[in-house]
Design brief:
The complex is a heterodimer of chains A (100) and B (233). Helix content of chain A is 13%, strand content 49%. Chain A has 1 helix and 8 strands; from the N terminus they run αββββββββ. In chain A, the strands form 2 sheets. In chain A, strands 4-5-6-7 form a 4-stranded antiparallel sheet, with no helix packed on it. The longest helix of chain A has 13 residues, at 2-14. Chain B has 233 residues and is mainly beta. In chain B, 11% of the residues lie in helices and 50% in strands. Chain B has 1 helix and 20 strands. In chain B, a hairpin with a 5-residue loop joins strand 16 (190-193) and strand 17. Classes of the chains: A mainly beta (100), B mainly beta (233). At the A-B interface, helix 1, strand 1, strand 2, strand 4 and strand 5 of A face helix 1, strand 1, strand 2, strand 4 and strand 5 of B. Strand 1 of chain A pairs antiparallel with strand 20 (227-232) of chain B, so a sheet runs across the interface.
């Protein structure tokens, strides 16, 4: 029991937790869904009509391009708060450059 | 080494990884994102610094972007000029503009980086590009108004969310033939694939649909009003 708990804790700390699905609505509501249980574990809101969404490989971030908001935001996937906002003109697609 | 020591060692390793991850998260880790911007540019951004590093001029009304897995090339769907711009990411220059179907919308690369698949909203096709020759090698007719496209983890299947026909087209990347058409309903706008092969569809109306990897049977639906774009982390 203790060993299982310890392994789960270690896995969580090392970032090998179960994948999460991020779904942005056209109105800016984002649901975070645990892929294993298919339960919504968190929700948050971004302004301006998401058109693109991409997940970081190396950072705890999901990037969302908000077309009407003229900005791309970086949302912290631990706190679900917008931590970065970069202004750009009617952004649509967003992709993270692989670092491999 | 006893069980306790092994556990302590693993715990310390995980702690180190966590500390590194937090540091990378704060500092930006040099991560770069590409964002398509109206009317004809891609912004190259260091999100950690909150700065646009550069702009690259592409075709008209750029939408979806995908990189080859090595990050060497970026492919940008130009919905207003029926083409795909290929950016050399080291030089930040367009090295080729490839004709595509009508209103190219989204882009995905296979895990081996050999193929790039482009959904073309205007004519219901999937343009296939060879990433070595940078030529279009095939055009596959899928459903109506294809939007999001994603590739299975082993690269053999492309999934295309066809918003106009309420379907998910399953395309073989070996033969470029439609293997199956899944009726998902709604107006599917985007699709993503989980590492275990399960498929997630944002149906554009009010549902997120989970499909089993091999059977593609609906495993579950999650209510989310106007589910529009989807990604996996």
């Amino acid at each position: 029991m203790k060993l299982t708990g310890a392994i789960i804790l270690i896995c969580a700390m090392a970032g090998c937790s179960a994948p999460m699905v991020y779904v942005a609505s056209s109105k800016g509501d984002v649901a975070v869904i645990d892929a294993s249980s298919r339960k919504v574990v968190a929700t948050f809101h971004v302004e301006g009509g998401p058109e693109g969404i991409a997940a970081s490989e190396s950072r705890p971030r999901v990037y969302i391009a908000n077309f009407w908001g003229n900005a791309v935001v970086g949302v912290n996937t631990r706190t679900h708060k917008v931590e970065e906002e970069i202004r750009c003109y009617y952004p649509w697609g967003v992709a993270v450059k692989p670092t491999r | 080494m006893g069980a306790k020591e092994k556990l302590t060692f693993l715990f310390l390793c995980a702690l180190c990884v966590s500390v590194v991850q937090v540091c990378l998260g704060c500092a930006g880790a040099g991560e770069v994102i590409y964002v398509s911007c109206t009317p004809d540019k891609v912004a190259v951004i260091d999100p950690g610094l909150g700065k646009i590093i550069s702009f690259v001029r592409v075709g008209s009304r750029p939408q979806g972007i995908a990189f080859t897995p090595d990050g060497r090339l970026a492919f940008v769907a130009n919905s207003g000029s029926d083409s795909v711009s290929v950016i050399n990411t080291a030089k930040l220059k367009v090295v080729k503009t490839i004709p595509a179907g009508s209103k190219p919308c989204d882009v995905a690369a296979t895990p081996d980086g050999e193929l790039v698949l482009v959904s073309c909203f205007g004519d219901g096709t999937l343009t296939v590009i060879d990433s070595r020759t940078l030529e279009s090698t095939a055009s596959v007719t899928v459903g109506e108004e294809p939007a999001g496209v994603a590739v299975s983890p082993e690269g053999g299947i492309a999934y295309v969310a066809c918003s106009g026909s309420g379907t998910l087209s399953v395309v073989s990347t070996a033969t470029f033939e439609i293997e199956r058409v899944i009726e998902v309903g709604g107006r599917p706008m985007d699709v993503a694939v989980l590492p275990d092969g399960r498929v997630v569809v944002a149906d554009g109306t009010g549902w997120v649909i989970f499909l089993e990897g091999e059977t593609l049977k609906v495993a579950g639906r999650v209510r989310h009003r106007n589910a529009w774009r989807v990604t996996v982390k």
